[in-house]
Inverse folding.
């Protein structure tokens, strides 16, 4: 049996976890887009 404080803390933690996953995923997507844009810019400058 888990500590009741741990049980009580788990529900909001799991709800908040989805938010962090969404933020993390969108941050990764934005990062990838930025990398692609920078690569395209660099390729255009080389040509």
């Amino acid at each position: 049996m888990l500590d009741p404080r741990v049980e009580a803390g788990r529900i909001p933690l799991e709800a908040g976890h989805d938010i962090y996953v969404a933020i993390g995923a969108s941050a990764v997507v934005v990062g990838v887009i930025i990398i692609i844009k920078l690569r395209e810019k660099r390729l255009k400058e080389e040509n």
In short: The chain has one domain: 1-47. The mean pLDDT is 79. The first helix runs from residue 4 to 46.
